[in-house]
Amino acid sequence: MEPLAAAADTPGYQALATFYRSRLLLAGGRLAEARALEREFSRTAARIGPKDRAHEMVASALESLTPDGGAMDQAAEAARRGDHVGAAGWYGQCAEELPAGPFRATMRLFAEAARVQGGLLPSPAAVRQCLSRLCADNVFAARTITDVESLLTGLLMRAIDLHQAGADAQIVAEVADFLGEFRGGTAVGRPQGSGAYDTDARADMTLVDFLAQATTPVTAAEIVTGLPAHHVVWVHVTGQTGEHHLTVVTLRPSDPVPLVRRTHLSTADGKALAQCLDEDSEDAPAEAVRRISDLFFADIGPDALGTRILVVPDSATWAMPWNELAPHGTAALAISMSAAAALRSRPARAAVVPRVIGIFDEVELEGSRLEARALDRLDAQGHIRFTRVHSLAELRDALETAPYDILTISVHGTESDGFEYRMLLPDGPSSPAALLRLGLPEVVVLGCCWSAKSTERADTTAAALSCLAAGASQVVGGLWAIDDELAGRLLADTYDRHLRRGVPLPQALRQAHLALPPDLRPGAAGLALIGRG
After folding, report:
1. pTM for the whole thing?
2. To which H or E segment does residue 210 belong?
3. Tell me, what's the pLDDT at 456?
4. Which residues in 365-507 belong to E strands, given as ranges?
5. What pLDDT is attached to residue 124?
């Protein structure tokens, strides 16, 4: 705000600086101060004539405000008094007075937050009505203005309380999956236009719109019908320093009644969980891995032979060694932002002779060379038709010319750069959003560090999610800085099982992981399958 105010060289731009300050205060929940600045802006805006270069922007900002002394003032006053009923009603009225968009969604969010805080959702039916109101005003559009996840987490805790008091567990699964939709699931399987991705920067910004797509909660019955062979497991860690709880919701095949476990994490549990996060998990003691596996998969069993598992982790548990944590006998494990996202993804089809296209960094990465040589052998044996390209432009041209079944990109990835992530392609760094401009096949393999990481902020995304938003149904990616040679070895074996022996990709990746020597498996667990398992 300081540089903006310093650059404001007309009364109109100075008024806009005041308006933007009011938005920042609103985003921070400082409603009385925000309202005072709105009144100051309104008085100044009335004196801005058409000759001021900022006149149109000022007029537009002025139209977005509710009248002085309106519902927002009443809502803020009610919130200060702790009058949750009044705050919910007045914020709801604010939402009705505003046009559709982020600010309307924010007011709806505040209204429902007041209901959660005031204990005004006494039943599963009331929680579902809350979800309906949030969806009607497209709550995810508020993600760049205020903390949507806190409200949804509070709503999940309310659903759990109702279940523990005797209510049906299905409402817990519905809210848990809605949280996953907020974390990125809503971007998956949604139709997109094609005019906004001509540069990486514009495509990156467009991803914000995909993350704010409207959505509808799915029921446990719909998940069981759409994913009939899967155990679906939602994992959530909540709480503050020294007082954390783990909530695991498990939906079993052919049974629409979820099982809910809420566990207080002991000091030993918390230590084991920390040891199994991110790259640190490669050195986790076997006892810690067993402890966390038992906590996550207690309702699947220690020896679930042939089980297919779809895990919906929260942000805290996304980057974990899932193929190491999976119960013995698990046939395949995938992770997804939400079960609803998996349902929207198209199932990957089996091709007689799959067409594979790839970009490789064979100069610096031994793993890239291993992967490319494995695909060359399969091509020579007639199991696949393999095309190698060397730039994003070549890849785009090839995908426009002919259909492919698998795209593999084996290059360096950055941990955080610009809009969070870049793939270092041979022709230069590229944003994951560039993938939105490509006609992607159903399967994408990203042998790149951090390519499957979760988002760092509510309005950004990484490569795996971009691929799913662009139409892929299965993405193999790196959850952390993976060893490239080990990744190449794992993927070479996965290709042999999938493309030569005909094993479905999720099972092929799982089998290749288990075929590695035990001392190498923790590092290989940094590669995971994301999407429809």
Report:
1. 0.87
2. helix 200-211
3. 53
4. 385-389, 406-410, 412-413, 423-425, 428-430, 443-446, 474-478
5. 96
Cα–Cα distance measured from residue 6 to residue 4, given in angstroms and rounded to the nearest whole number: 5
- Of 463, 485, 432, residue with least CA distance to 530: 463
**How far apart, in whole angstroms, are the C-alpha atoms of residue 472 and residue 474?**
6
Q: What is each CA distance from 489 to 440, 483, 523, in whole angstroms?
A: 24, 10, 12
Phi, psi for residue 334 in degrees, rounded to 5: -130, 155
Q: What are phi and psi of 61, to 5 degrees?
A: -65, -40
* φ and ψ of 531, to 5 deg: 120, -150
pLDDT at 204: 61
Give the Å distances, CA to CA, from 245 to 89, 262, 275, 296, 481: 32, 7, 17, 12, 28
What residues contact 209, with CB distance under 8 A and at least 6 apart? Answer: none
Give the pLDDT score at 221.
94
288: tokens are: 């810690």
Looking at residue 372, what is its pLDDT? 96
Q: In the numeric block, which tokens belong to residue 310? A: 């779809």
Nearest CA-CA partner of 17 in 58, 78, 52: 58
* Interval 165-204: pLDDT, tens: 999 999 999 999 999 999 888 888 766 655 555 666 666 6
CA dist 124 and 173 (Å) reads 12
**DSSP-assigned beta bridge partners for residue 309:** 231, 333
For 465, phi then psi, to 5°, come to -65, -35
- pLDDT, position 455: 61
Strand order in the sheet with 412-413: 412-413, 423-425, 428-430
Q: Encode 79-108 in three state secondary structure.
A: HHHCCHHHHHHHHHHHHHHCCCCHHHHHHH
Q: What are the C-alpha distances in Å from 223 to residues 217, 306, 313? A: 11, 20, 16
DSSP annotation of 212 reads T
391 half-sphere exposure, CB direction, 13 A CA radius: 5
As to burial, measured by CB atoms within 10 angstroms (0-12 exposed, 13-18 middle, 19+ buried), residue 58 is buried
Burial (CB count <10 Å: 0-12, 13-18, 19+), residue 259 = middle
Tens digits of residue pLDDT in 1-54: 777 788 888 999 999 999 989 888 876 667 778 888 988 999 999 899 999 988
Is residue 350 within 8 Å of residue 357, measured between CB atoms?
Answer: no
- Cβ proximity of 251 and 279 under 8 Å: no
Residues of the chain with pLDDT under 70: 27-29, 66-69, 190-207, 241, 301-303, 416-420, 454-462
- DSSP designation for 285: -
Q: Which two tokens stand for residue 253?
A: 């095949």
Q: How far apart are CA 108 and CA 228, in angstroms?
A: 35
